[in-house]
Design goal:
Structural class: mainly alpha
Largest sheet: none
Number of strands: 0
Helix content: over 70%
Number of domains: 1
Shape: rod-shaped
Amino acid sequence: MPETVPPGEVAHTLSHHHGASAGEKHAERIEIVEAILLAIVAIATAWSGYQTGRWDGDQAHLYGLANKERAAQNRATTRDGQQLLFNTSTLGFWLQEKAAGDEKAARLFERRFLPEYRIAFNAWLKTDPLSNPHAPAGPSLMPQYHSATAEQAAKADERASAYFEQGTQAREQGDRYLRNTVLLGTVLFLTALAQKFKITRVRLSLLGVAGALLVVALYFVFTYPTT
């Protein structure tokens, strides 16, 4: 005769299987959430790392341009100083010849002035500098005096400052993406740690913290400028 099982034991067995099945489904859902979190973290981390590298490259490029413009500024400043020294030295010889009354030699030195300086020199002569005590001390102090090399140096300085500022901004953007990568690494750590716990409440709590940090990190990813 077949062995009979008491009705109470059958009900207990079915209830046990039903509870185990529900628990397994719940665990599977948690695993799916963890997998989704890990996938999103992987993509966001790769993007943040990529942007960090791009911004660092922009920073190096812009700093290189700034150094190039600084070098151009130094060359223009040196050339401007040399030209001014030549003109002022020639002016000194001109004054000596004027004082000695040698007009021929004075005109010779006048012809040696560089074109930009000669314009200011002619305007300076109109102020009667040899007799007028209120006349400017020299042509370089006249409003008509303009130095192309000095203007080149000033423009190079402006470009160098602009490039350097842009490079600093690029560095700051790269640092932001780098910090975001660290934040995403924390999300990855918490998600991996949650998988080690069998207690559902602890596991869900860790996943909740990881999810909140992931939302913050994704907000940064979507709001930070890209290059």
